Amino acid sequence: MIREFKEGHVSVERHNGVTTIAFSHPQSNSLPRALLEELTWQIHAAGDDDETRVIILRSGGDRAFCAGASFDELLAVKNEEQGFQFFSGFANLINAMRKCPQFIIARIQGKCVGGGVGLAAAADYAIAMEGAEIKLSELAVGIGPFVVGPAVERKMGLAAFSHLSIDASMFRSADWARRHGLYAELYADVATMDESIRRLADNLAHANPEAMARMKEMYWKGTEHWDRLLSERAHISGKLVLSEFSRNAIQKFKKK
Question: Model's pTM, two decimal places?
Fold first, then answer.
């Protein structure tokens, strides 16, 4: 199944208990609101599907896993409510991944920026390429990683999260991300990475679904307040994106 949008698409494949959800966007797999909403819906649908034992989240191409928020849509925000609605897209997707009873494996074939780091952190297990560098660029465009912050801090710890969010213009290596807990495995070539993903997905597809659901509840203990927390964070980002500083910074990034 493929859902086409004005720019980009989301596709879903189901095979032997494994549901693969893939997204693509011509601007380095950035995420406009429509793709965020579709991904959230598909995560919920897979979570409710009795035949789905494990979920693989991946993106198209070979250069970037996800560049985060769509700059075009950020510049189109005219008021705080529109800003809140846009950033709620990331909040809703992270919460859907958190509450989904199946384990989510993230296939990270390229760089992660901003919200892309948040998606990698919200996955239960991330397998990446050695070139999959990460950067939390939000402060550089005047916003700050408020919505994705809880997921990144939970996965990597406060120290690593603060390093990423303060030095917002610096890419950190995939090995740095692995050493700080974001990535579980790193591979030098796509074929080996995909074989590892297939092996793990197949093993999980044959594991006890109730046991995995209980394990996931255990891993995410203490996040029960995130529906409210991430909504509050979306309000902060939705307001900050209206500032003159943010507008000018985003325009500069678009011209690079």
Answer: 0.96
